[in-house]
Amino acid sequence: MALPESRDKTFVDGADIPPEVLNNIQDSIVAGKHGDQVLILPATAMEPVSGWSYGGAFLNWETTTGNSRLVAEIPLRVGDRIKGVKVHCSDAGGGTGVVSAVLEEKSMAGGSLTVTTKSDSVSSDDSGTLQQVVLTNVVQEAIQADEVWRVSMFATAGSGLRRVHAIEITYDRP
């Protein structure tokens, strides 16, 4: 095997390092900095705005209150680009309430605070099962120094039990 799974070659003190080995090292370092990466945000990385409580048998966020909101700020670096978002959740099923999610950018540019939607709002399928809500039409642009990106999740009207377990963010460093 070769880098990055294992060593190319073992060297002793004072040995010359062949150019092809140095090139492999550099290529492995660069490859780790670019391309798609996946970040998992667990339930503990989310904050309730209204109506959600943390706990239950699965240690997740739960609500039976309609019009509840839960947010998760995405801890990426300036220059990273969000390419996809999946919310791992379950809804009540039977028309008693679903989970909706949307990607947002909070900008502090120019001394004012603005929030801009960066994806379509997508809802769970009302099946009562564990599922992934995949956000569509995600705006793929580099994160700027004066921005915070977040996922906002909403429990629609209804009294059924809804849960949010984790969020999966696919991003890259162009």
Question: Can you offer a commentary on this structure?
Answer:
- The protein is mainly β and 174 residues long.
- It folds into two domains: 1-33, no CATH class; 37-172, Galactose-binding domain-like (Jelly Rolls), CATH 2.60.120.260.
- Helix content is 9%, strand content 42%.
- It has one helix and twelve strands.
- The strands form two sheets. Strands 1, 3, 4, 6, 10 and 12 form a six-stranded antiparallel β-sheet that branches. Strands 2, 5, 7, 8, 9 and 11 form a six-stranded antiparallel β-sheet that branches.
- A hairpin with a 4-residue loop joins strand 3 and strand 4.
- The longest helix is centred in the first third of the chain and has 15 residues, at 19-33.
- The radius of gyration is 21 Å and the shape is elongated.
Keywords:
Jelly Rolls, 12 strands, 6-stranded antiparallel β-sheet, elongated, 174 residues, mainly beta, 2 domains
